[in-house]
Amino acid sequence: MSKPVLKISELHASVEEKDILKGVNMVVKGGEIHAIMGPNGTGKSTLASVIMGHPNYTVQSGAVDLDGQDVLEMEVDERARAGIFLGMQYPSEIGGVTNADFLRTAINTKKEAGEEVSLFKFAKGLDNATNKLEMRKDLPHRYLNVGFSGGEKKRNEILQLLMLEPKIAILDEIDSGLDIDALRIVGTNITAVVKERKDEMGVIIITHYQRLLDYVKPDFVHVFMEGRIVKTGDYSLAQKLEKDGYDWLKEELGIKTFTEEQTAVAAEKIRMGTCFVPKK
């Protein structure tokens, strides 16, 4: 299998007539781990939503290609079948559909017409994945995320990642709401699946904190501000951001610092599932 390549070129996007993404350029290849960091309200989660095809966002210009295919021309389900996976910041609860049924259906939709994964192979893989994630034995057979704790929902996103084996995995603040043990379990499993699949999967991790990166060492760290990537480095950049914050970089780049009120509003907008750019 050839190494997958996701290429984002001069991507501009808006929501409710507000410009959010302002020229994003990024290339993610199989076997690579990219971390995206940055203050609240700067467009990180918007980037994930646009790549996956969220209908609330309007792409104004630019391109997103996966292995030479135009991702922006695909419907959401086509993007998933093409190999793009989004681990969501706030996973939805879906009553009446068990984890196991959801996963087996998702796996079968990626196969050729008339082909299905065998029940034995699926059950064995699911049992193996739940053991790796130290999940309760009944979670795969309960309704999707219904009654799950925040940590269980995030582990459930990684369970889907392990089972679906995408080409490009985008993990949007997968570490939020995790305690120390859950963070370790999630982080070590992300690292393990990248190593196991070698060059067959690339990963984008959107995070505010360096602590997840103690378990998932990124090859590249990108700092997102004002709707674009303003600086790229290695793991040492994440360590510096954890120690010194973002003010030094804003000063270096001449970027106006958000007020505490603007940042708080941005965080609340993101929590509620929308995006926001503070007025200048």
Largest sheet: 6 strands, mixed
From the N-terminal CA to the C-terminal CA, the straight-line distance is 48 Å
Helix fraction by DSSP (H/I, runs of at least 4): 25-40%
Compressed to H and E, one letter per element, the order equals: EEEHEEHEEHHEHEHEEEHHH
Low-confidence stretches: 258-264, 269-280
SS field, number of helical segments: 9
Please state roughly what percent of the residues sit in beta strands, choosing from under 5%, 5-15%, 15-25%, 25-35%, 35-45% or over 45%.
25-35%
Q: Determine the mean pLDDT.
A: 88
* SS elements, strand count: 12
The structural class is alpha/beta
Lateral arrangement of strands in the main beta sheet: 6-9-10-3-11-12
Shape: globular
Radius of gyration: 19 Å
Topology:
Elements: E1 5-15, E2 18-29, E3 33-37, H1 44-52, E4 58-66, E5 69-70, H2 76-82, E6 84-87, E7 94-98, H3 99-109, H4 119-132, E8 143-144, H5 150-164, E9 168-172, H6 180-197, E10 202-206, E11 220-225, E12 228-233, H7 235-244, H8 247-253, H9 260-271
Helix pairs in contact: 5-6
What does this structure look like?
This protein is of the alpha/beta class and 280 residues long. Helices cover 37% and strands 26% of the residues. The chain has 9 helices and 12 strands. The protein has helices spanning 44-52, 76-82, 99-109, 119-132, 150-164, 180-197, 235-244, 247-253, 260-271, and strands at 5-15, 18-29, 33-37, 58-66, 69-70, 84-87, 94-98, 143-144, 168-172, 202-206, 220-225, 228-233. Strands 6-9-10-3-11-12 form a 6-stranded mixed β-sheet, sandwiched between helices. A 4-stranded antiparallel β-sheet has the order 2-1-4-5, covered by helices on one side. A two-stranded antiparallel sheet has the order 7-8. α5 (150-164) packs parallel to α6 (180-197). The chain is globular. Residues 258-264 and 269-280 have low confidence and may be disordered.
